[in-house]
Specification:
Strand order of the largest sheet: 5-4-3-8-9-10
CATH class of one domain: Alpha Beta
CATH architecture of one domain: 2-Layer Sandwich
Structural class: alpha+beta
Number of helices: 16
Number of strands: 13
Strand content: 15-25%
Largest sheet: 6 strands, antiparallel
Radius of gyration: 22 Å
CATH topology of one domain: D-amino Acid Aminotransferase, Chain A, domain 1
Length: 405
């Protein structure tokens, strides 16, 4: 095999899609809005009786590592020779010993080591200087928040043992041979025993209303990207939700929540629930102390895309509103954090750039769909898809041109 062929084969192998992605964490504001709209649910019980485990949400990239030492980005395998991801050293994640964590976990939960064929640990890789990450000295850190176990036989027994041992897991398995573990005290205790780094605590064994109150000030000023909350509900088991600050562009989500807040304030909900909704609304609407949100609002305003008018409401799939365009533009920069740098793909050749472009288009399409709250492919290859493709191609072309200067 020639050297060129070997390099292409290596790239194709390293870029092979994998099925070990961490499922998307649910948006807390969407969950709260839906709870109010569905009258069969009880907001008082949900906000006042649901105990939580909360940690800081970081603005990095979700990377995983298994017990054999293989690294994963959200979509692709990371090659053994790679020393950086988004121009940030991978040293700390390379040094993390997931095999040790696997052994500690198996022992703590009384699992059969022969049944567990793979242990994958997930974490946020801090690879940018947003917020005060540089001042805190955490750039390059890998903050682990969860794990998946791959098992030889159906994972019901493994799931039961993990739950009985105090781990946070969903009640149902999306994949019968993969068991997911969410962040909680037990998981963090074992991670620390294996010398794995974990996110900062934002609350433990408190109800949702208290978590919101305790973190409102920091969220309002944009001191952190957000808060990740593990909750438990009898029907579904443990769930993971994220509360993101107003510097994260999510206009439809915010609009829906503010409508839900109006309903709550006029309802017979408990006063503490009403206070919680008012505090969440304040984080959304009062950005006077949030420099990142002010900067993003100014940037969007200067582009001239978003105007307060009826045209900005989400219309039929075939119509692309100005607000949709803003969501897409923001979605491109947001989605690029899930991949390595453009420079890395450029160095691998034309095929690598094309694969990167196509994967980025998929991510941006999903970003728009979530913000629109539609559970189908955006526009079915129509107006939105063309706009997304054109703008992704334009951004990549511009970034590649900047590297030549």
């Amino acid at each position: 095999m020639s050297q060129v062929a070997e390099e292409r084969f290596s790239f194709q192998m390293s870029q092979e899609k994998h099925n070990y992605q961490w499922d998307s964490t649910e948006n807390a504001l969407t969950i709260f809005s839906t709870l109010v709209k569905k009258k069969k649910n009880d907001p008082d019980k949900f906000f006042l009786e649901t105990l939580c485990f909360a940690t800081e949400k970081y603005d990095g990239s979700n990377l995983a590592k298994d017990d054999s030492g293989q690294l994963y980005s959200k979509n692709f395998l990371i090659e053994e020779k790679d020393e950086e991801f988004i121009k940030t050293s991978l040293r700390k994640i390379r040094e993390a010993n997931v095999a040790d964590f696997r052994n500690i976990l198996i022992k703590a939960a009384g699992l059969d080591g022969d049944v567990v064929t793979k242990c994958i640990v997930y974490g946020e890789f801090i690879c940018n200087s947003f917020y005060d990450y540089a001042e805190r000295g955490i750039i390059g850190d890998w903050k682990v928040f969860g794990a998946k176990l791959e098992v030889q036989k159906e994972g019901i027994e493994t799931l039961a043992k993990l739950t009985k041992s105090g781990f946070a897991c969903p009640k149902r398995l999306n994949n019968p041979n993969q068991v997911k573990i969410y962040p909680n005290e037990k998981f963090f205790e074992l991670a620390k025993q294996a010398d794995l780094d974990v996110p900062d605590f934002k609350g433990s064994n408190e109800n949702i209303a208290t978590i919101i109150a305790d973190n409102k000030t920091e969220m309002k000023r944009g001191g952190i990207e957000g808060v990740v909350i593990t909750i438990y509900q009898e029907e579904s088991g443990h769930r993971l939700i994220k509360w993101k600050g107003s510097q994260e562009f999510q206009p439809n989500t915010h609009a829906n929540f503010l409508k839900a807040n109006d309903l709550v304030q006029k309802s017979g909900a408990h006063k503490d629930v009403k206070i919680a909704f008012l505090e969440l609304s304040e984080v959304i609407t009062d950005i006077s102390e949030n420099e990142l949100a002010l900067e993003k609002t100014k940037s969007i305003s200067e582009k001239g895309h978003y105007k307060e008018s009826k045209e900005n409401k989400v219309k039929q799939d075939r119509c692309l509103s100005s607000l949709d365009k803003d969501i897409i533009h923001d979605g491109i920069s947001h989605s690029q954090k899930k991949f390595d740098s453009v420079e890395k793909y450029k160095n691998k050749g034309t095929d690598a750039i094309e694969e990167y472009k196509e994967s980025l288009i998929v991510e941006v399409s999903e970003h728009l769909a979530k913000e629109r709250s539609v559970l189908k492919e955006v526009d079915d290859g129509g107006t939105s898809q063309k706009f997304i493709r054109d703008n992704v191609e334009s951004v990549i072309k511009s970034q590649l041109a900047d590297q030549l200067q």
